[in-house]
């Protein structure tokens, strides 16, 4: 048996140790790379990020690279669980820890924060995300013209708001956004920038979207985690008896699903029109364009026990457009909504998400949201 065959077999055995069966950084299953300088097993995507910080991490393929005996021994003595206890010893509860489904900038800044900047190795330290005030320039997309222009944004924990100003020295903000109504999610493909962040909030009971980016990846990820830190502060005030585990899911979140479907108008005698849909838990919003500032309409998805249901197919006699033949019918207590998808796999994915939402029990806040929807419509 060659030296490299022996190393490959040994590494395969080390992979069986608890925690080594998933990527140390994003949780992707079956990692195929390792950092022989950090002692962690990682996936192919994260190995590319590690390769960009060569002073900190030296990466090798578990099956294709040549491993020295002392490197194999180092992996055996360390591994994902032990290194997690070192490099993630003091991650604040509000900090967004990305998964393998998240975009490049989130995963890169998480890896750099852990290993390059060593932000989380010392328990008890104060983080810059918790300073209570963040003031800086972000490139913001114009609501009407679609141009990205530099705008000043100010996040204040004391006021519980984000404000943005059209000029840096402007006395009055263009908008004042309550932190407790904000959702922030990275949307690089939609926005067309690797650091593209979508900020969504309620304005007069309607959803408003703001699209921003910063040329520096660290800066835009710091904004996200600063927003989450302020949100957690306000949630702890609002729900003094709640645990961190109960509050963290209420912070900024990724949308459950986004994509194109076609829908009919309210009378269902109109033709189907292609729209961009965003499912944000119980709120199904639709837009003419993915980068619209306001939704053209919203549908509240309640619990199955309260008159909400979803099924594949359309009522008899419904005429679809061209290739969009895969129908979905959503029934609410007030009306029926008809949609079509271009492919069966897309239809099945939407159906699963709708069914999951309608099967979940509603919280008191969601009953309040349901009442607001009925009042508005």
UniProtKB/TrEMBL annotation:
It holds the Pfam family PH. Coiled coil: none annotated. It comes from the Eukaryota. CDD domains: ArfGap_ADAP, PH1_ADAP, PH2_ADAP. PROSITE patterns: ARFGAP, PH_DOMAIN. Its main location: cytoplasm. SUPFAM superfamilies: ArfGap/RecO-like zinc finger, PH domain-like. Keywords: Cytoplasm, GTPase activation, Metal-binding, Repeat, Zinc, Zinc-finger. One of its GO terms (molecular function) is phosphatidylinositol bisphosphate binding. This is Arf-GAP with dual PH domain-containing protein 1. InterPro entries: Arf-GAP_dual-PH_domain, ARFGAP/RecO, ArfGAP_dom, ArfGAP_dom_sf, PH-like_dom_sf, PH1_ADAP, PH2_ADAP, PH_domain. GO terms for cellular component: cytoplasm; plasma membrane. It is found in: Cytoplasm.
